[in-house]
């Protein structure tokens, strides 16, 4: 299903924003300006944008995604979006 999860640390609401895992659509990630990175100590890769979450949410809206939910966990904000 075409879901995407984006996250940002609350103390870093100006970015960076993480916009997917290593299996996310590379064409969409390019449109978002994301780069695939692997943080030291992690056994997975993730896509990272330097822009704030608001800009990424606007870009995803243009791509046809709608917000399903948002929440905060610890010091992290999380948004889940879906594209029909």
TrEMBL record:
CC terms in the record's Gene Ontology section:
cytosol; nuclear membrane
| Cellular localisation | Cytoplasm, Cytosol; Nucleus membrane
Q: Which GO terms describe its biological process?
A: negative regulation of biosynthetic process
List UniProt keywords, sorted A-Z. Answer: Cytoplasm, Membrane, Nucleus
Q: Which SUPFAM superfamilies match?
A: GTP cyclohydrolase I feedback regulatory protein, GFRP (SSF69761)
Q: Which InterPro entries match?
A: GFRP_sf, GTP_CycHdrlase_I_reg
Q: Which GO terms describe its molecular function?
A: GTP cyclohydrolase binding
Q: What is its main location?
A: cytoplasm
Q: Which family does it belong to?
A: Belongs to the GFRP family.
Output this protein's name.
GTP cyclohydrolase 1 feedback regulatory protein
Starting at the broadest rank, the lineage of the source organism is: Eukaryota, Metazoa, Spiralia, Lophotrochozoa, Bryozoa
């Amino acid at each position: 299903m075409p879901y995407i999860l984006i996250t940002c640390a609350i103390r870093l609401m100006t970015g960076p924003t993480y916009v997917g895992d290593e299996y996310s659509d590379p064409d969409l990630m390019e449109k978002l300006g994301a780069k695939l990175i692997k943080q030291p100590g992690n056994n997975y890769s993730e896509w990272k944008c330097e822009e704030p979450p608001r800009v990424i949410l606007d870009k995803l809206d243009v791509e046809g995604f709608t917000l399903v939910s948002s929440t905060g966990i610890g010091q992290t904000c999380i948004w889940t979006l879906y594209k029909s």
